[in-house]
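Let's practice the habit of predicting before peeking. Look at the sequence and jot down your guess about where helices and strands might fall. Then scroll down.
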Amino acid sequence: MKAKISDLYDLEHTIAAPLLERFEYPWEALAHIKDFILELGPTLPEGEFDHPAEGVWIAKDAKIFDSAYIGSPLIIDHGAEVRQCAFLRCPAIIGKGATVGNSSELKNVILFDKVQVPHFNYVGDSILGYCSHTGAGAITSNLKSDKTLVTVKDRATGEAIETGIKKFGAMLGDHVEVGCNSVLNPGTVIGPNSNVYPLSRVRGFIPANHIFKDEDNIVEKC
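Done guessing? Here is the structure:
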């Protein structure tokens, strides 16, 4: 199962690279996002980043709509856009040129550069890779209904990785496309350049360069 950080992400496309470089699997970084922001924030150039509140750093060329809720701790990198009524519960790192759309909610996340969560999305306890995109209404479900610890499973091989954590949304590799109104269940890991059909219910590991049509129909891209 190619679910390691090195399998999923190009770390040149995130300000969070020093954090992710410490770990083998991306979900291992989730518990450390808050502390990393508070370490990195004070080192950001004052000429490039505003510091409007305790624990908050926003690039001067980022666009933040007045109706967005800005929590702490938080870093919003250059050229990012946070649109109307977005709810940034934080901690959150929003990458360069990323978009957080109207009524979208973030909680304990890393969005790589140019990620788009543009319409009515919930992204919790998740890491979204470079240029990944979630369609309108797509969400990451980050807590199992029985509240047990999350296991990442590869149905094709039977391999399973015990994560040891309860809150785990989805790890999306670079250039992943998730269709509208899809639900990514706890422990979902999607390899780079893969697509998920709209209205899908996804669980477990999806390899790179595949199309998820349904749980019994995951095909390799031509």
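How did you do? The mean pLDDT is 97.
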